[in-house]
Amino acid sequence: MRQRDRRLAALRLVGADRGMTAGEAVLSTLIGITLGAFVFTAVLAVVAVITLSLAVTQLAMNTGSRCRATPTRSYLV
Question: Which of 7, 8, 27, 75 has the fewest beta carbons closer than 10 A?
């Protein structure tokens, strides 16, 4: 028996009806979706930073001394 089936069976043993167990299943699904979206977004941000860092490093290696990693001024202030 799967863990989810055991948990739902335990809920039914203590008096939960089908509506309560269905609500528990929906709640756990929504929590899983939310956590999955959060982890996906966090990993995506980390991968983007690493990719950008590697691209800048590769650009600096390809252009030699012409490329300087100095901050640029923003004229849109």
Answer: 75
The first and second tokens of residue 25, run together, are 């299943």
Angle at 56 between CA 53 and CA 59, to 5 degrees: 150
Cα–Cα distance measured from residue 27 to residue 24, given in angstroms and rounded to the nearest whole number? 5
C-alpha–C-alpha distance, residues 71 and 52, integer Å: 15
Contact in structure between 67 and 60 (CB atoms under 8 Å): yes
Summarised one tens digit per residue, pLDDT across range 67-76 is 555 656 666 6
Give which of 32, 24, 27 is closest to 7, Cα–Cα: 24
